[in-house]
Design a protein that fits this description.
Layout lengths: L18 H11 L2 H17 L4 H25 L1 H6 L6 H4 L4 H19 L4 H19 L8 H17 L10 H18 L3 H6 L5 H5 L1 H21 L7 H23 L5 H21 L6
Length: 296
């Protein structure tokens, strides 16, 4: 009988990947959508409150570095869980990037965030680093507890406060601004978890949305986000402007539709999609209202 063919050698998939492919994998592993949205929101808010060009660029760099560190640490820490449920949308699962590479990138991004935040002043740096710490706390432990909403609430409250505190002078954020951020964060957390509830539960993740269940989360997420829009419109001093007021009505209506669908069709993806629409409307109102009464 002829000899059996030799088994093909097993090669490290990372060894064949060049710098460009690794960069693409790192971008995908950074949770690129939320990273871009949060960074853009903070940068747009800085422009809206009249920050000088140098401050706007600092805000962009600081927030981008912090968000990258949160995204990369999430995929690094969740690598085993994601493999267990076959999350092929994750580069670390497909072998496009190694967990060790994500760990190194996350640590480097944290250090960059610290260094970049120092020129914004002690109060601003503390606010931003507090937001980043909340993101890491969620990734490390809190995502699996009933307090999973808390890091989102605190981090999203601190981010617009950071933008205001980074401005030249001694201005302070108006109370309504971090309130809108906190509501936006909680609503985003509830909506963001909706598509992955079953996969998360299968690997032992039991955050607040998992404990509430799909139906309750599908109703609550758009409701909280719609409330954030209302506060963003009514919070600044004076009568609401026409455009933000119209956007608020649209957001409340969209949230009501999303909640109704979530109540009667808990397996539908529509509540998640509509909740994201409400979140975008909230961002539009927040940026539009940022220049009016955000600084005290």
């Amino acid at each position: 009988m002829p000899d059996a063919p030799a088994a093909a050698p097993v090669r490290d998939p990372h060894a064949r990947r060049g710098p460009a492919a690794t960069a693409v994998a790192l971008a995908r592993a950074s949770h690129l959508g939320p990273t871009v949205v949060v960074t853009s929101l903070c940068t747009a808010l800085a422009v809206g409150v009249g920050a000088p060009g140098g401050t706007v660029l600092l805000v962009l760099g600081v927030v981008l570095a912090g968000q990258l560190s949160i995204g990369w640490s999430n995929d690094w820490l969740d690598a085993a869980r994601d493999r267990a449920v076959g999350r092929t949308d994750k580069p670390v699962v497909t072998g496009a990037v190694a967990p060790g590479t994500l760990r190194g990138a996350a640590v480097a991004a944290v250090l960059a965030s610290v260094l970049l935040s120092l020129p914004t002043g002690l109060a601003a740096a503390a606010a931003h680093l507090g937001a980043v710490a909340m993101g890491w706390a969620y990734n490390v432990r809190l995502k699996s507890t009933a307090a999973s909403w808390l890091p989102y609430a605190v981090a999203f409250a601190l981010l617009p406060a950071f933008v205001v505190l980074a401005l030249p002078g001694d201005g302070r954020p108006a109370a309504w601004l971090p309130a809108v951020g906190a509501l936006l964060g909680v609503g985003a957390h509830l909506a963001n978890v909706l598509p992955d509830l079953e996969d998360d539960a299968a690997t032992g993740v039991r955050g607040l949305p998992h404990r509430l269940g799909r139906r309750a989360t599908g109703v609550l997420a758009p409701a909280v986000l719609a409330l954030a829009v209302v506060v963003a419109v009514l919070g600044p001093p004076g009568a609401p402007r026409p455009v933000p007021a119209v956007v608020a009505v649209l957001a409340v209506g969209t949230g009501a539709v999303a909640g109704a669908v979530g109540l009667v069709r808990d397996r539908s993806r529509l509540p998640f999609t509509l909740a994201m629409v409400v979140a975008v409307l909230c961002v539009v109102v927040l940026v539009a209202s940022g220049a009016r009464g955000a600084v005290t």
